[in-house]
Amino acid sequence: MDVLIVGAGPTGLTLACDLARQGVDFRIVAREPRPAPGSRGFSLKPLSLAALDDLGAAPAITAAGSVERRTRFHLGTRLLFRGDVPPDVATAENPYPNLIALPQWRTEAILRERLAELGRAVEFGVEVTGVDGERVTLATGEAITARFVVGADGGHSVVRKAMGVAFTGHSGEQSAVVADVRLDGLDPADGVHLWLDPGAGMLAARPQGAGLWQIVASGVEADPDVLRAAFRTRSGRPDLRITEVEWISRWRYNVRMASRFRAGNRFVAGDAAHVHSPFGGHGMNTGIQDAYNLGWKLGMVLRGEATGALLDTYEIERMPVARSILADSDRRMSGMLGSRLARPLLGPLMKAGMARQSRRNRRDHPAYPEGPLITAGGGHPAPDGRLPTGARLFDLFRGSHFTVLGPAPVPGLDLGFVRQVQVTGPFRVVRPDGYLALVAPGPQPVLDYFARVRAPALV
Fold this sequence. Notes:
By secondary structure, this protein is α+β, with helices and mostly antiparallel strands. The chain has 11 helices and 24 strands. Strands 6-5-14-15-16-13-17-20 form an 8-stranded mixed β-sheet, sandwiched between helices. It has a 6-stranded mixed β-sheet with strand order 8-2-1-12-19-18. Strands 22-21-23-24 form a 4-stranded mixed β-sheet, covered by helices on one side. A hairpin with a 2-residue loop joins strand 9 (128-132) and strand 10. Helix 1 packs parallel to helix 4 and helix 2 (46-54) crosses helix 3 (58-64).
C-alpha cells in the first residue's frame, strides 16, 4: 500500500478524494465505528470551495449549504444591533466569493459520497495504535505496511506522537459546550444570534436547517439540563425553549501547533498539526487546504514524476499558514471575550468590526511566500474565468497536473504532468492545487521551474 490515511474527518476525506482520483493505492481508516455526529466546524471558505470544486464535491456542498449573512448581537438581554452583510456576487473570475454555512457532519457526508463515486470508502472501526516507519500497528494486533502515513487524526493524534514531534502552545481556562438542538421560538431567517455577558459568558445560536440549531455556550458542562438553564439565563428569553438535544460535546480552548509536519514517511494535517480557537472559522478549512497541498505532491512522487524532495515543501508552505491562522484566531477570541468597551460605544463599533471581519473572511486566501515551488509573481490562487474559446479555466486546471498558460508552446517542455494552454500575455504556471507558481516573460524560466520541481534536492 502506498498511503495510509489515519482519520476520516474533512482533512482525511479531502486527501482520500484527491488520491482516489489520481489512482493512488491507499486506505483511509477511522477509529470510530461510524461517522462522527455533530456540527462542530461550520463554515467553508472560498479557497476551500475552490479545492472542493477541483475534487468534484463543490456542487453538492453549495446546494446543501447557505450563505451566512445575518447576525443578531445581544449584550445580556439587550439587542445591540442587527448585522446584515449582503452576499458578494459570483463572477467568472471568482465563482465562490462567499462563505458557505454547512455543519461539519454534512460536509463529511458529501465527501464520503464523492469518495464512493471514485470507488473508495472509509474503513470505520479500525484503530491505529502505533507507527514505526512503514510498519503500522492496529488495535487488533495486525500490522500493515504503508509507504507513507498521514495523520489526520485530530489533536490527540497517534501519528504525531509516533513522529516524536512537540505539540507546543498553550491551553486557556476557557471552555464551551457545543450542541445540536431543536429549538422553539427563534426564526432561522434571522440568522445567527450572539449573546455576550461579561458576567455570565457567551451564548450563540446558529440555524442549521431542518429545524436544527447549533448552540455554543461558554463555561458550562456538557449536560442537556445545564445547557437549557444557561440558554434561558443568558438569552433572557423565556419564550425560547430547547426541546431536544441531539448531540452535545465539550470543547476546551487550545492553541497548539506541531513543531514538524513531516518526519520521514509520516505527515500530520488538520487538527493533528494545529488546533486553535473557533473564531474566524479556520479549523475545517485549514485542514482541507493542508490535504489539498499534500495530495498532489504525494501523487507525483508515487508516480515517479518527482523525487521525495518535493514532499519537503508541504511543511515549508503550510506551517507559516498555520502559524498565522493560530495567531489570528487567538486575537479574535481575545477581542470577543475580553472587550471592556463602554456600552454606549460597543454596539456601533462591534457592528462595523463584524462587518469588516465577514468581508475579510470571504477574501481569506492564504498566500505562499517565495520558495522552492513559488517564484516572483506567484503565491496566490489563480482566478477562474473563460477563454475566448469558451473553456473554463478551473476545468483546465482540474486534476493533478500543472497548467502552463502562454502565447505559444514552450519548446522542449514534454512532461506528462504538464498541460499547455495557448492564451495571450506572459507565461504563467499554475500548480495542481490552483496556486499561481510563476509569471515569466519568456519560456526559459518555465523550463527552469520544472527542472527544479523534478530536482533531487528542492530545499
